[in-house]
Amino acid sequence: MQQKRLTILQGMPIFGGIDEDTLSSLLSKALLIQVRKDEYFFKEDDLDNSIYILEKGRVAIFRNWQNKRYKLRELCEGDCFGEMALMDCKPRSAEVVALEDCNAIQITSGQLADIYQTNPEQFTLIYMNLGREVCRRLRDADTRLFMNDHVNA
pTM for this one? Predict the structure, then answer.
């Protein structure tokens, strides 16, 4: 099972260029989380500084705005979520609910800080990759927002 988890991480953009020793170290300290269908990984405004990598299942990400709930996206095995709160140390900006029973790998900012102590170069690369992932998602959100505004104009 550890090899399968390592393979999942190696295939993710946020761990691109990260060596196997660093990934193995992260996995050895990671928590394995199980969330049942219709339960939450976290809710908007929760305090948490972890990133989650889906090992099994599907989730939906929702954001509440002006008393309405908006579905931002769905994610499945091999996807991650929670990177914003991990990077900016602010409360969660959205909620993540399991669409089916899920297993996820939870990596905390403390575990990443341990990587910084042993290998600052790998730590920096992880955070650079996380920044790129946030930028990809921002571009996607901008595109969807523009398309909706353009269609409604």
Answer: 0.85
